[in-house]
Design a protein that fits this description.
The protein is of the alpha/beta class. It is built from six helices and five strands; from the N terminus they run αβαβαααβββα. 44% of the residues are buried. This is Nicotinamide-nucleotide amidase.
Length: 163
């Protein structure tokens, strides 16, 4: 699993905060972040919205989007990240949604994962095709989410955000 320290260090340096909205990772992303000493300066909190109806009621994902595309979708991932950012009043929102297995879900294959990061002026969503068992898919999704956050925090456009 990716080291959460670079993300936390960059957030501390920038004086910015992060929140998460997790579906398939079920709190693993938040748990990974809170392993870092000093993370309380930057981690606002998170939403574990495993059930589809909670994606709408807690994270604010449009119910029509969920009804037409299902929970495993790139636009849903972005909406989850935006919802975490808004609900927790954070500068950055990070989300995970996908199929960890062992069986496909709503016609989506095991290992199909979407990770989104939304910041003050930018957003990124990645489609992943991950292998391995349920635990490996979830761990890989967390690693990718942390790496994506670091990438955006280091990008030139991220440096123009308000603190």
């Amino acid at each position: 699993m990716a080291d959460p320290n670079p993300a936390v260090r960059l957030l501390i340096e920038r004086g910015e905060t992060v929140a998460v909205a997790e579906s398939l990772t079920g709190g693993l992303l938040a748990a990974t972040l809170v392993e870092v000493p000093g993370v309380s300066a930057v981690f606002r909190g998170g939403l574990v919205v495993y059930a589809t109806d909670l994606k709408a009621s807690l994270a604010g994902v449009d119910e029509r989007l969920l009804a037409t595309r299902g929970a495993v979708d790139p636009d849903v991932a972005v909406a989850l990240a935006e919802g975490a950012r808004r609900a927790c009043r954070a500068d950055w929102g990070v989300s995970t949604t996908g199929v960890a297995g062992p069986d496909p879900q709503d016609g989506k294959p095991v290992g199909l994962v979407y990770v989104a990061v939304v910041g003050p002026q930018q957003r990124r969503v990645d489609e992943l095709r991950l292998g391995g068992d349920r635990s490996a898919v979830r761990a890989s999704a967390v690693s990718h989410a942390l790496d994506s956050l670091v990438t955006l925090l280091r990008s030139p456009t991220a440096n123009t955000s308000a603190s």
